[in-house]
Amino acid sequence: MLGAGNRVIPGHAPFAAPHNPGLFAVGQPDAGMGLNQFGPPVAPQRVQQQQQQHQEDNTPWYLKWGKEAVKIGFIVGAGIVGGLAGGPPGAMAAAALASGVSSAVDQKLTTGKIDWGTVMIDTAIGAIPGGFGKLAGTAASRLGIQLTKEATKEITVKAIGQQTLKRAILGGAAHGAADGAAIGYISGFAHSAYDNYKKTGSLNLSEAHSAGVSSIVAGAIGGGVMGGTIHGVVHKFQAAKVTKTAAANKTATKGQTTRVANETAVKTTPAVAEGGDPKVIALMEQLYPQLEKKMAAEKAVMQEVFAGLGEIQARAKKPVSGANRLQRTVEAGWATDPVKIGADGQPLKIKEITTVDQARHNLWDALGSRLVVGDTTPEGMNKVVDALVKGIRDGKVKLKQLNNLRGPNGKPYFTPEHMQRIQDACAEKGLKVKMGNYEAAPDKSPFTSICGYLDHGDGVTGEIQIIGKRALRIADAEHLPYDAGIKKDLYRELTPAGKKVVEPKFKPFESAIHALSDEQRLLYNRYLNECYIHARNMELGVASQPPKLPEGLSSVLSIDNILHLQDLYHHTKKAHARYPS
Fold first, then answer.
1. Which residues of 88-114 are buried (b: 16+ CB within 10 A; e: fewer)?
2. 537, pLDDT greater than 90
């Protein structure tokens, strides 16, 4: 016996499907209601719309969200790429185009036709978040950066290729998610309002708002995935580009080492030559007391770590010296803002230092500590490495970079085994440290030392040197020709009265440095390198003779005269220090 639901009503066709409003539109009676009346004729396109609506109503929610996420991800991706190329206008144009194209493709696939009025609406919808969503994305990118283990303020000045891929992806994902959420809401709201108006003549803003809210999550997911992917790819491309540039210029990889060779090639501004930009000096004078206070605590830590191995010297970067350093950083194009993050997830480049936070962020040697090693024999240096490794493992030393520096054929302080031990200790603590083993080119400074950079917290980066007593004497002396060569103010740490004492002795030396030809400068660098090698031989107990100044060079350039000038400077500074410590 047939059940009631399958009973055939005489004079009418049997129903093989459940109740369907689309069937009534073409004259089918409602068997379930027992009605024998036909509805009015309806246009075929209305039937198609009703069938499409039925299909959409029965589509699982996750498929709807997936489709919406992919569509919005495509729009967000176009907007991000357009933004990277042309800023907000580029983002708006690219997102609008992508939204219009996706609308046309979607209509063609689902209905077989394209309603160009709907395409124009979707194009406008894409343009709006392309501009406003980008602003929200920039703010969200900052949040994404701050959620990483390294606070933005603690990031030192680096080339783009040295920024972490994780940071770029997080920033890009936050940017894309904000754009996607904005697009999702506006798209859901606008389409709901438009459809309601076509059906009922009313916008029904409440329903439109609900539709917009329901699209936010799908938009954020699609946009976040696309944003993170694009920024990750862009980052890898930029990193590869920087690596290629660094390979062509060996000194470029030394970014933060003492006496960066590239720095000497930077055009020196009049402000630097005359003693620094007064505005930047004023910022440094505000920062200096903070650095002095922090340096006292860090010196105590270094004394504990290297107890019994030598003397710990420490200093905070003086205002004029710091202002000069910052100016050269700006001139080299390395200066970045600690807070403002670009669409690519990287700190924005800046053309001037205008805040104390910017000054702190861009000084990679804001604090300086030095271990003057008492025993520089291989056995003594083993003990130094033991102490440094222990300090890293105990969490007292947060190393960011370590360079083993010397001139051509020079004698380094650390062996490859030493460097590997230190790198392994950093890896155990999760510290990403850059290790460098550099032998300077003949025309660059032959400075011989272990030079590292430490994270002191609060956005402060400091330099640490490990050097023997004899090499330190040469380094102190060699600093004068280096400073004079880049036209650095040699009297920056003295009062006007102190400058009057030493200037008559220093002027002939400065003139001799500036008068050197390229060939003479190469000879002089070789001479200074031989002085370092002689000092290292003496530290190691190897017989050695002091090098002679090359013929044709002024006697005021001899290492003996430079040491005399250095002693005069330190003696004068005791009574005429511009910034007493």
1. bebbbbbbbbbbbbbbbebbeeeeeee
2. yes
Widest Cα–Cα separation across the chain: 125
Yes or no: say if 336 and 433 are a contact pair by the CB < 8 Å rule: no
Residue 415 CB partners (closer than 8 Å, separation 6+): 381
User: Which residues are CB-contacts of 54 (< 8 A; sequence separation ≥ 6)?
Assistant: 20, 21, 22
- Angle at CA of residue 259, ends 366 and 441, nearest 5°: 155
Tens-digit pLDDT profile for residues 340-390:
888 888 889 999 999 999 999 999 899 999 999 999 999 999 999 999 999
- List for the chain the helix, strand, coil content (%; round to 5): 60, 10, 30
Asked whether residue 176 carries a pLDDT value surpassing 80, the answer given is no
The one-letter amino acid at 75 = I
Angle, helices 205-248/165-200, rounded to nearest 10 degrees = 150
Return the minimum-mean-pLDDT range out of 362-371, 482-491, 538-547.
482-491
Q: How far apart are the first and last CA of the chain?
A: 107
Distance from the Cα of residue 120 to its chain's centroid: 39
Considering only residues 397 and 99, tell me which one the structure prediction assigns the higher pLDDT.
Answer: 397
* Prediction pTM value: 0.53
At residue 210, the pLDDT reads 78
For residue 526, pLDDT over 90 is answered with yes
Residue 364: closest CA among 472, 452, 482, 262? 452
455 has pLDDT over 50: yes
| The predicted structure's pLDDT at residue 358 | 92
Query: Which of 76, 126, 79 minimizes the C-alpha distance to 104?
Result: 126
Q: Which of 134, 232, 229, 124 is nearest to 181 (CA)?
A: 134
- How much is the CA Rg of the chain, to the nearest whole Å? 35
Residue 144, CA atoms < 13 Å, CB-side half-sphere: 31
Residue 495 near residue 577 (C-beta atoms within 8 A):
yes
The amino acid at 13: A
d(CA 245, CA 228): 26
Query: Under DSSP, is residue 27 helix (H, G, I), strand (E, B) or coil?
Result: coil
Check residue 169 and report its DSSP letter: H
Which two tokens mark 529? 């390198």
CA 473 to each of CA 73, 202, 224, 441, 479: distance values in angstroms, whole numbers, following the listed order? 62, 86, 56, 22, 10
Q: Which two tokens stand for residue 326?
A: 């910052």
- Asked if 517 and 527 touch (Cβ cutoff 8 Å), the reply is no
Which pLDDT tens digit goes with each residue over 42-95?
444 444 454 445 444 555 655 555 666 666 656 666 656 655 555 566 667 776
- Is residue 27 over pLDDT 50? no
Supply 107's token pair.
Answer: 């209509």
User: Who contacts 43 (Cβ-Cβ below 8 Å, separation ≥6)?
Assistant: none
Nearest residue to 268 via CA among 443, 488, 493: 488
Most confident of 95-109, 172-186, 264-278, 564-578: 564-578
For residues 440 and 250, what is the distance between their CA atoms, to the nearest angstrom? 10
> Would you say 501 and 565 are in contact if contact means Cβ atoms under 8 Å apart?
no
Beta bridge partners of residue 452, listed in sequence order: 402, 464
Residue (of 404, 427, 413, 406) closest to 382 by Cα position: 413
Handedness of CA 532, 535, 539, 545 (dihedral sign): positive
